[in-house]
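ligand=S-adenosylmethionine
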Amino acid sequence: MSERTHTYWDTRHREHDDLASGGHIGLDRAGNEIFYALRLGTLLPLIGDLADESAPLFVLDAGCGKGHFARALARCGHRVDAFDASEEAVAHARAEGGGPRYAVAALDEWRSPWPYDVVLCIDVLFHVLDDRDWAAGLRNLASLVRITGRLILTDEDTRTRRPRGDYILHRPTAEYADELQRLGLRHTLFTPYGFRENEVGFHVFTRTR
Ligand SMILES: C[S@@+](CC[C@H](N)C(=O)[O-])C[C@H]1O[C@@H](n2cnc3c(N)ncnc32)[C@H](O)[C@@H]1O
């Protein structure tokens, strides 16, 4: 991640509240409450409703921001690792506690001795503008998914590249699918957020080999 991007995220996490900094910067508090609640409600069925204390799902939240989703999934009984490139965000997440194990790392840096049942990457990859960083991050996330496990990431479901402003590049679904297919992950589902005019949603990739 470039120094400029790093500074952008640290500043955004320092200057905005826990929801706006990782949610939608243009929404007020109530709007972000709805945005997070709606996405959590859409995400949970994609992960599954089995949360057995003796056999929790092992979940990674990559680019966790201040840990909103990581904490929610820990409350639902899952065992959660979470990381983000922003020290500011991770310090905030750690202070909140709630179960997840946090680290500071970039998408292409995180290593784990064990694979995850589910790897999440929510509203991060379309903020990674550099194609090499994007591909390296995506490949690393794929390597962390156990066979038959899922990589759930978010972007629009589009056929064309759609840059928006300084920090957003929506990539075609085919670019994700091509990169992941050769690593044994198949695109199995797209579920849109269904939030106002937002066209982003959850792409589910299942590891088959
Ligand atoms: C829009 S926020 C989303 C945060 C969180 N997933 C959520 O939904 O609340 C994007 C996050 O991605 C992180 N990020 C951006 N590029 C990253 C990278 N290459 N590696 C790790 N984290 C990154 C930023 O620091 C920021 O916390």
